[in-house]
Design goal:
This protein is α+β, with helices and mostly antiparallel strands. The chain folds into 3 domains: 13-104, no CATH class; 117-231, DNA polymerase, domain 1, CATH 1.10.150; 251-415, Intergrase catalytic core (hpI Integrase, Chain A), CATH 1.10.443.10. Helix content is 41%, strand content 11%. Strand 1 (26-31) and strand 2 (34-39) form a beta hairpin. The longest helix is centred in the middle third of the chain and has 27 residues, at 195-221.
Length: 433
C-alpha cells in the first residue's frame, strides 16, 4: 500500500466536526487520480456520522468532461468507535481506498501525462462550459497571455520560478487594444509609465494568474501532475493592486445614455441599469424569466454558474411588464431590431456610439452600468449584503472591496439625521478670520 497521507481537516473527528455540511464531499488526493472523500452530514442530526468514499479518475468522456468511478467505503468514526469494517478512521478509510482502487482498476493507470498547459487550459474551459458557466473572458485572457508563453510546456515540469517570471512579464506588457479586421500582429496602447498604470497591469496579471491556477488545479485533480507545489502557495500574486471601482454613472448621465441609445439597444441599457446584470446574462433572458408576482427577474445562467433572482424596484417591474406583455414565454426577451438575439461583443459599437452622443466623459463600457447600479444602490443606503445578492456574489467581500467606500455617504447622512443632538452648540456670530 502507498504511504498514508495526512490531512488536518479529516484526520480526527474533532477536525471533521468543524467542516460545513455540503452536498459535494471533501476530497483528499491519495495518489494521482485516486481521492478519498468525506461527505459531511448536517450538524445536530441524529445520524451515525459522515461517510467515507473513494473515487478514481477514469478519463474524459466524448464531451471532454472528466469522469470518475466512485464507491462508498463506510461510515466515519464521528460518533462511534471504529471497527475497521463498517465504521472507519481516516487511516482505515485510506487503506480500503487503495485496496479498492488496485482491485477494480488494474491496468488502468491514472493519466499522469504528458499534458501541456494548452491542453490543461482547454480541458478546464470545456469543464466550465458543461457547468453552464461563462468562458468568454477566460478564453480571451488565456489566448493573449497564457498560451503564447506557456502553452507548449508540460504541466508536470512547471516550476515556481518559471511561473513567477511569466507573471512578471505580463505585468510589464502595455495594455492591448482591439485589432482591426485585417491585422495579424497585436496592437498596444501607449500609456504613461506612472504608478497607476503599473497597478493596473499588475491587477490584470493577477486575474490571468487566477485562470492559470484554476486550469492547473483541475489537471492536478485529474491526476496529470504528482504535485501542485509549483503553482500553489509558493506562487504569489501581486499585492495591493486592487483599487475600488471609481467610475460610475450619475442618475443624470444614465438618463442621457438611455436617451442617446438606439431603439433596440436602449432596452438593453435600461435592463442593465435596473438589474445590475451582466451583458451575457441579459442577452440570455427569456420572457418567462420575468415574474410580475414576485417583482423579480430570474438569471438562470450566470458567470458563476449559480442561478439567482434579481429583485426589482417599482420602475424596474413596470419596465419589464411593458417589455414582456403579450409575448410568448420562450421568446428571447431582449433582441436586436431584426428580432435576432444579441451576440458576443455586439454591444461594443452601439455602446460607444451612445456614449459619444450622450457626451459622457471619460468614456465607459457597457459593464459600467453594472458598477453604476451597485454604486448608486450603496450610496442610497441599500445594505451591502442585499446589493451582493442581487449582483450574484456569494458574500459581501466583492461589494465591500469595490463599493464599500461609497457607503460613507449613507453613514454621514444617517448620523446627521438620526444621532442625538443636545442643543449646547448654538449658532454664533463669531467667525474665524
Amino acid at each position: 500500500m502507498p504511504r498514508a497521507v495526512r490531512d488536518s481537516k479529516l484526520d480526527t473527528r474533532n477536525a471533521r466536526d468543524k467542516l460545513k455540511p455540503r452536498a459535494r464531499p471533501y476530497f483528499r488526493a491519495l495518489t494521482p487520480g485516486v481521492h478519498l472523500g468525506y461527505r459531511r452530514r448536517r450538524k445536530g442530526s441524529k445520524d451515525k456520522g459522515g461517510m467515507w468514499l473513494v473515487r478514481r479518475y477514469i478519463g474524459l468522456d466524448a464531451n471532454g468532461v472528466g469522469r470518475y468511478r466512485e464507491k462508498n467505503l463506510g461510515l466515519a468514526d464521528d460518533f462511534r468507535e471504529a471497527d475497521g469494517k463498517r465504521i472507519l478512521t481516516f487511516e482505515q478509510a485510506q487503506k480500503l481506498a487503495f485496496e479498492w482502487s488496485d482491485k477494480n482498476d488494474a491496468g488502468q493507470e491514472a493519466p499522469t501525462g504528458p499534458l501541456t498547459v494548452a491542453k490543461a487550459v482547454q480541458r478546464y474551459l470545456t469543464n466550465l462550459e458543461h457547468q453552464g458557466r461563462s468562458t468568454a473572458d477566460a478564453e480571451i485572457r488565456a489566448e493573449l497571455h497564457i498560451l503564447p508563453s506557456l502553452g507548449s510546456e508540460l504541466v508536470e515540469r512547471l516550476s515556481t520560478e518559471r511561473l513567477q517570471r511569466w507573471l512578471a512579464e505580463i505585468a510589464k506588457m502595455p495594455p492591448r487594444v482591439r485589432r482591426k479586421k485585417f491585422d495579424t500582429a497585436p496592437r498596444y496602447k501607449m500609456v504613461p509609465e506612472d504608478a497607476e498604470s503599473k497597478r493596473r497591469r499588475r491587477s490584470t496579471a493577477n486575474r490571468v494568474l487566477t485562470i492559470l491556477k484554476a486550469a492547473l488545479n483541475y489537471a492536478f485533480d485529474a491526476g496529470h501532475a504528482k504535485s501542485n507545489t509549483a503553482w500553489g502557495r509558493r506562487l504569489k500574486p501581486f499585492r495591493q493592486v486592487d483599487a475600488a471601482r471609481q467610475r460610475f454613472l450619475s442618475v443624470n448621465e444614465a438618463r442621457r445614455l438611455v436617451n442617446a441609445s438606439g431603439q433596440d439597444f436602449r432596452k438593453l441599457v435600461q435592463a442593465a441599469l435596473v438589474t445590475g446584470a451582466r451583458y451575457s446574462e441579459l442577452t440570455r433572458l427569456k420572457v418567462r424569466d420575468f415574474s410580475a408576482d414576485s417583482d423579480a427577474v430570474a438569471i438562470l445562467q450566470s458567470k458563476g454558474g449559480k442561478p439567482r433572482h434579481v429583485h426589482l424596484t417599482e420602475e424596474g417591474t413596470r419596465f419589464f411588464e411593458q417589455l414582456t406583455v403579450g409575448r410568448a414565454g420562450d421568446e428571447i426577451m431582449l433582441t436586436k431590431a431584426d428580432g435576432t438575439a444579441w451576440g458576443r461583443s455586439e454591444q461594443l459599437r452601439p455602446m460607444a456610439a451612445a456614449v459619444r452622443a450622450a457626451r459622457i466623459d471619460p468614456k465607459i463600457s457597457f459593464h459600467t452600468t453594472r458598477h453604476s447600479y451597485a454604486s448608486l444602490s450603496v450610496m442610497a443606503g441599500v445594505p451591502l449584503h442585499v446589493v451582493a445578492r442581487n449582483l450574484g456574489h456569494v458574500d459581501t467581500r466583492m461589494v465591500e472591496r469595490h463599493y464599500g467606500h461609497l457607503a460613507d455617504t449613507y453613514l454621514k447622512r444617517a448620523i446627521r439625521e438620526g444621532a442625538p443632538q443636545f442643543g449646547f452648540a448654538k449658532g454664533s456670530k463669531v467667525v474665524p478670520l
